[in-house]
Sequence to fold (1190 residues):
Amino acid sequence: MPSYRAPVEDVLFLLTDVLRIERFNNLPGFSEVTEDLASVILSEAGRFCADVLQPLNQTGDREGCKRRPNGEVTTPAGFKEAYRAFVEAGWLGLSADPAYGGQGLPYLFTVIVNEFASAANISFALYSGLTQAAFAAILTHGSDEQKKTYLPKLVRGAWSGTMNLTEPHCGTDLGLLKTKAIPNEDGSYAIHGQKIFISAGEHDLTENIIHLVLARIEGAPAGVKGISLFIVPKFLVEPDQKLGARNAVSCGSLEHKMGIHGNATCVMNYDGAKGFLVGEPNKGLNAMFVMMNEARLGVAGQGLGQSEIAYQNAAAYAKDRKQGRSFSAAKDQAEPEPIIVHPDIRRILLTIRGFNEAARALLLCVALEADVAHRSEDEAARQAASDRLGLLTPVLKGVLTDIGFDNTVLAQQVFGGHGYIGEWGVEQFVRDARIAMIYEGANGIQALDLVGRKLAKDNGRAVMAFFAEVAGFIKENAAEPDIKPFLEPLEKAVEHLRDASLWFMNNALMKPEQAAAGAYDYMHLFGLVALGYMWARIAKAALARRAHNNATQAMEFKLLIGAFFMERMMPESATRLARIRAGAETMMAPSAEMF
Amino acid sequence: MPSYRAPVEDVLFLLTDVLRIERFNNLPGFSEVTEDLASVILSEAGRFCADVLQPLNQTGDREGCKRRPNGEVTTPAGFKEAYRAFVEAGWLGLSADPAYGGQGLPYLFTVIVNEFASAANISFALYSGLTQAAFAAILTHGSDEQKKTYLPKLVRGAWSGTMNLTEPHCGTDLGLLKTKAIPNEDGSYAIHGQKIFISAGEHDLTENIIHLVLARIEGAPAGVKGISLFIVPKFLVEPDQKLGARNAVSCGSLEHKMGIHGNATCVMNYDGAKGFLVGEPNKGLNAMFVMMNEARLGVAGQGLGQSEIAYQNAAAYAKDRKQGRSFSAAKDQAEPEPIIVHPDIRRILLTIRGFNEAARALLLCVALEADVAHRSEDEAARQAASDRLGLLTPVLKGVLTDIGFDNTVLAQQVFGGHGYIGEWGVEQFVRDARIAMIYEGANGIQALDLVGRKLAKDNGRAVMAFFAEVAGFIKENAAEPDIKPFLEPLEKAVEHLRDASLWFMNNALMKPEQAAAGAYDYMHLFGLVALGYMWARIAKAALARRAHNNATQAMEFKLLIGAFFMERMMPESATRLARIRAGAETMMAPSAEMF
Fold:
């Protein structure tokens, strides 16, 4: 049976020593969170995820969700009670606007709790995560009445949310979507169409489900410019907030998936269901993108979470499983030693851990930018934070889910044959983590978003600010001999990233295929630099603790993990650059029939 | 529903133009195989795998194997009939010694058919593959009587074989094994113990199952020097070859696995089962290694096979699925185009295909060495072939299964959300391919075998011969401008491999941890060089066809795929070298508790 312990100390170290969140005490919600309170909140959240959610992970995988003939869906045993407990403990509305019943704490905390929950039980975490994203979309684009009607119930977890984008013939290319919205006389719309891959589309956790649905109002322009966003509640809401008639939306079937069996992934049929327009007609994609961007950070946290639980279990196994002897063992030693003595096992564990710590730092960095972007009164700060958030969201989504998945596969290898059978639970991490590379925009789309949209935006303002910050850090710390081993590989990788960016500028402006051909490697190169930068910052903080005689074993370990990352991961930047420079020519030469 | 078409033309091109197998006409079994006959054999085998085995793959995954309370195991519907047809068509004994009813064709052909069968249905292919491996072990180490008793039945597929190594507390470290063999009065042994993860341990495909079991004769030395190999038939064999009493070996349970559900992975209980010693007492590991090495090439073929079927289905999907538009599409074009127009989709497809073609060339190269090693009358040729076989077996097993798995994951990404649901079948490729990285020696063990054993063996004779051959090829073709783009990146990677080998010599002799710490990257660096060398040879052959006005679209495509591989894959060699040079120091510094 796998187990989980939330990395609370690591998170607290990041908050206090690396991100130094006390700098943001002037933002709403931040001043309340003293170091002690943060510790209490995170310990509680960690305990909840470990004690309540994680034990339901393996059973939920085996049992799965079930659809009854009438279209109702039941979640695995224990999910309902756990969801109620999750909601009652306040985890759902942790950062939500107090005007609607939220606790108003920094969004940062929601991102942290999301990592813990996604590590413990990704299927479960999807239910609450989508509700938070629906909250954000309605908050940003809904009318006052819609906010009043839906937000308090969403925050309290009485109702849940979904995102309805995909249709059988239309995934990435939303311009093709066919779901129709026909105006009713009362100002609402009748929604007709079919949506697929709808996470949490139908379930028994909440009394109502608020579907956010993209559809095309009759007569709207073709393509993405004719898409509107609608609220389609499972049960219509009466003026007195009571639940009214059952709406004409139903779960047609459940998808049989590789993993996340505990989450109900539904085919949803809209047969003239009553829908309420959110925001302006034909501006639905903008509104949905609020939800999508929030969800993308959530999915990045899933990649990290799965990598974290995979690490923990692999490390525990490696300390327990005895097989072979170390090179330093006496020649006549007959007794086998724990496999953690073997360099190749350490290579795997340090590879995973080296990612996890830096990825967490990066995710929290960006979550903090989201807080600044939404809560600061300083316009310049808001803009800079918003730039950074936009730039790094695709990097986080793409890189944390790709490497997070790879790490579950690495962790599985530590278990040998035991990794392949269900009992140990690690093969489930692999199956569950795989989805995160696909949904909320497949990672190839994240790469295109980064290269095709985010780089050039505002004349490259966001990426230049990023380069300037990293260069500033390197310069500032150049005189510190202990940080040097972190700065040199970082500097080299930054140079490669700069070269890659220049290569795009020189080659892709006239021929965008050149950028598309290198986008994926660019995204990973960017991720590598960002993670390397995080390691340099973590190392600086750990060294500072050491200088204050406050060094613990944990800090020593961090410095070693970071050194491993710098030695072994950073050299990849050269390969990425070489691939980017290879360009599109060879790739685009074969005709389609040749493949 | 996934589909499969065996890459017969690609294989024939490799046989005739790249490997030029007509050079080996002096070896037994080779002269019979004219180009025409090879084409007929491979087309037939391909058709069988595509038409009979592949349709059972998805159904077999869903149905799985079932164990009845009495310990009997049934395979999924259709497996029994397919196995009979497989055997009757002669695929099982294709290369087996004619003295025992085999057809005596080159082993090369068995390796090719194994790739086809493993692509179509890896669960199915395991049943026959283990039987072939058992045949090889008994042929090499069995007594004349054992050969007479077991080999004809194994060749004809009336009986099947298994390998019994692993025990609950003992996987990689076979020295720990506890299964006991107590001498009976009749010269046989009573086998007591439990084995786990036994592929094809019990099933309904054959009338008898011949278990090859590692056990420790009472009083034998501790560790690997006290292990003996036994034949333990499910049904004892009477002197007249009829089946006698049921032996005391039974399937205690089936493992619940991530994939290969169609193969029965058993816990096997030996409760005083009658066993017959194979070869010398306490020399069991040597005998088992015959089986193991054969099985390792088989597993390499599984990695390649899964990568091949994943490619085929992803390419078909990419040509069919319409989503988005190419950069060259007219601005006002409303209709979406097949996703194969997108560079990132081509990146994925060419990455997979660039591996598949070179990996197949390498696998067949090495299979040919196995033929020479076993069939040549020239001692020097036998030795050189045996060296090459020993050197490249761990590389093939480790690299073809690692990258084969990665490629199934890449292919899955082409399908977007559809790749995650069972219907399309591609998620099964991921689950099935995963096991190949683990069994027959986890890939970390392959890396240690390469670096710790094969490199230094006979003063590095094998690796030096490999370097000399590649250097010779580069020199020989240096004047050909069309081959140059293949030689330059190859030369650079070879240099990195040489540097890595030197680094080990300089750093690991006194401190073997330095080698173990870099072994995994070294194995992949070696694989990269070997695959790059294959591409150079394929390119040469394709260019020769072009020079003879015999260029087809397929040859043009090969040159493009090869160019892609050289541009995008070969630069990885620098990263691998950097990691190797990072050494063991950082890795070994943390104490076990820190992890």
